[in-house]
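Record format v2
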Amino acid sequence: MLTQRYFAAVSKTNSTMYKHEYKVIVRYAETDQMGFVYYGNYAKFYEIGRVELIRSLGLSYKEFEDRLNIFLPVVQLESRYLLPARYDDELRIETILDELPEKMISFRHLIYNPQNFLINKGVVKLLFIDKITGRKVSAPQEMTDVLKKHFE
Amino acid sequence: MLTQRYFAAVSKTNSTMYKHEYKVIVRYAETDQMGFVYYGNYAKFYEIGRVELIRSLGLSYKEFEDRLNIFLPVVQLESRYLLPARYDDELRIETILDELPEKMISFRHLIYNPQNFLINKGVVKLLFIDKITGRKVSAPQEMTDVLKKHFE
Amino acid sequence: MLTQRYFAAVSKTNSTMYKHEYKVIVRYAETDQMGFVYYGNYAKFYEIGRVELIRSLGLSYKEFEDRLNIFLPVVQLESRYLLPARYDDELRIETILDELPEKMISFRHLIYNPQNFLINKGVVKLLFIDKITGRKVSAPQEMTDVLKKHFE
Amino acid sequence: MLTQRYFAAVSKTNSTMYKHEYKVIVRYAETDQMGFVYYGNYAKFYEIGRVELIRSLGLSYKEFEDRLNIFLPVVQLESRYLLPARYDDELRIETILDELPEKMISFRHLIYNPQNFLINKGVVKLLFIDKITGRKVSAPQEMTDVLKKHFE
């Protein structure tokens, strides 16, 4: 028997943005004694959202680090908590690139609960840093090349 | 486009045990500065393994809590770290029930990396506690009923 | 031998705000493979900052929940990551109340590394919710009473 | 006002072991919806215990990595959960070295709640690995030198 619990669905796209969806299940480890997901754990949901968006483009965050020697530290995080997420909820993480990355990349996240209510909105901004020099660089060419067609 | 990243595969069974497999991807949040998964994060992998095994039986850990008023605190954990798990690795968690649960339930876990090497072995033992009385109880009937056919 | 590793220091106050300082040591569990504190872990530093500020007032967050039946879910989080925090760094968390809480409470955090550089700025906003009714309430009287003298 | 919340107390020693105590406060982030500390979070308490034991010897785990190019991956973890730890509990972590480390180092942990009940027992075993070669090495001389006097 093969049950499918986690899956990435429906990478939609239009001329002004790139959007990707991914689902996660809330684990006991992520709840707190209020019975909800601890507010600090959404940062990991955003991480999952952005990494899987990158994978949906045929790219790999891991390769940015290993092959291109670029890593992407977070410089800004904003989060609005609208409704609680509960244990065992399957959450749908919608991750959106509204702009082509240049010096910075900005991911927008909308998280929905199983009843399809929007429970959380987040924005995460990251820089591109050269691992060797430690200096800021622009978004890797291969990323912008792949993304361009979604923004034309 | 629908890419499948997380999925539970192949719940094998024989006359002496019940086995279930589930895959997770290692996230940045789970690594430490050694570049490996932090040793404390395997507990969450075990949690995922046992919850998904229960789900594969058509049962729900959440329902144990909500409907049966039983919760399952961990009383014992043992873990052997054989090889490191790295960022973005898709790990295969094999979770095994070797015995029908009675006063206690014991899950055995084998975790494999993408190269199919066994990287971690774990055993987690949990009690069944009545939420109202706070006292130990036996495994819920509906759990043992479903499991019995796999142990005959 | 008694070595002091964690301590809350110097609750300063003036007529327009209330400020409290607390120190934490960065643990391996909190680093990621970049060698820095994972961006999601600052939420816990903010939690420590605000809980210890409340304690410095002679109050107790735990008592809000247990005795007053009020809990404080986070509704907004903003974070700027200016410099990385590294393993074993002793971080100084400065937590500031700029306004008397009414319907909401807003904590401002400034985190400094051992070289006294500001490495992170955060703002966390929380509501007061009655545990029984699930409805928004105002800041508990005993909190505002204690705080008022710092804002006059 | 300076309130002391975290402190390392009383590094006792006798001719057959080395013992060190350290206190931590349970944070909301560490609880789960059972209202107790999530079982996976004890690994971090053990980490804190062993790092602070090393510090109490005048040594530094960080220096092992940075200066001696040795890191200490965990190879084995055993944990018994006797009683729950609750939010805001100040836990006393007793960390014990029963033997001089050679190829491996084994830390034993006893965790007590504020009512002084033993709530958790753990054993963590770690190897010494040369960062450059990736090979097992023996405990660093400066560690065994400092420890020897406690074991004579």
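The interface with chain B takes residues 1-11, 22, 27-29, 43-44, 47-48, 51-52, 55-56, 60-62, 87-88 of chain A (CB under 8 Å).
Chain A has a mean pLDDT of 90.
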